[in-house]
């Protein structure tokens, strides 16, 4: 089962996850990454045994930036917070 890591703007993780599910049959082709200004950084979908390095500069604006997996159904539990002070 594939997974990704998507960092979103504060307060937008649920809407990004819903938009990923709405991709439907096009989801795999689009890596379950909807076009959204709310996505700051993301990896591609990765299968078991695969890896990817995601390098980025942390946002300069303080806030709680969610990270989620946008594969359908995963964002409910596969999530965390990157806190920028």
Mind sketching the topology for me?
Layout: E1 6-8, H1 13-21, E2 39-42, E3 63-68, E4 79-84
Antiparallel strand pairs: 1-2, 1-3, 3-4
How would you describe this protein?
It is a single chain. This protein is α+β, with helices and mostly antiparallel strands and 85 residues long. The protein has one domain (6-84): Immunoglobulin-like, CATH 2.60.40.420. It contains one helix and four strands. The protein has a four-stranded antiparallel sheet, with helices on one face. The radius of gyration is 12 Å and the shape is globular. The protein starts with 5 loop residues before the first strand and ends with a strand.
Short summary:
It contains one helix and four strands. It has one helix at residues 13-21, and strands at residues 6-8, 39-42, 63-68, 79-84.
Jot down its keywords.
85 residues, globular, single chain, Immunoglobulin-like, 22% strand
The CATH superfamily turns out to be: Cupredoxins -  blue copper proteins
The fold-level CATH name is Immunoglobulin-like
How many beta-strand runs? 4
| Rounded mean pLDDT score | 97
Count of individual helical segments: 1
Strand residues, percent: 15-25%
- Sketch the topology as an H/E string, one letter per element: EHEEE
Distance between the termini: 34 Å
Tell me the Rg in angstroms.
12 Å
Second-tier CATH architecture:
Sandwich
CATH C-level: Mainly Beta
Main β-sheet, spatial strand arrangement: 2-1-3-4
**SS-based class:** alpha+beta
